[in-house]
Write a structure and sequence with these properties.
Elements (H helix, E strand, L loop, with lengths): L10 E5 L2 H13 L3 E5 L2 H10 L4 E4 L10 H10 L2 E6 L12 E4 L4 H16 L1
Helix pairs in contact: 1-4, 2-3
Length: 123
């Protein structure tokens, strides 16, 4: 008998630059998560609500250049985990309610944070 992947049944929405989103989607999927990708804040929120996502992973800004504060706020109110995978992290605003992972870190660092979030949800 093989153990279940650590993120099996975990739903994640990734909103990032296309190449980064593909890397994150692949890493999260290999860990068992069901990962959806989005380009804009509005699309991210729509997918998050439709599939009752457990976690959102975003850059500081969406593809249209809009600050992703509204995504973090919506995820917070849903009780979903929030990770900002970016070069810099603002010191103020609602986006500070997300855990920051430096984009210099590999996608595996985001997966580790996702696993930690899932563990906290089960406690």
């Amino acid at each position: 008998m093989f153990p279940a992947p650590p993120l099996e049944g975990f739903i994640v929405v990734v909103q990032h630059k296309p190449d980064v989103a593909r890397r994150l989607e692949s890493a999260l999927s290999h860990s068992g998560a069901t990962a959806f990708t989005a380009r804009s804040g509005a699309e991210t929120i729509e997918i998050m609500n439709r599939y009752q996502a457990h976690l959102v992973v975003v850059d500081t800004h969406d593809a249209d250049g809009l600050f992703n504060e509204q995504v973090v706020f919506a995820a917070f109110h849903r009780g979903s985990g929030r990770i900002c995978y970016s070069e810099t992290f603002p010191e103020n605003g609602l986006i500070t309610w997300a855990r920051w992972v430096d984009i210099k870190e590999p996608a595996a660092a985001v997966v580790e944070q996702a696993i930690e979030w899932r563990r906290r949800m089960k406690d």
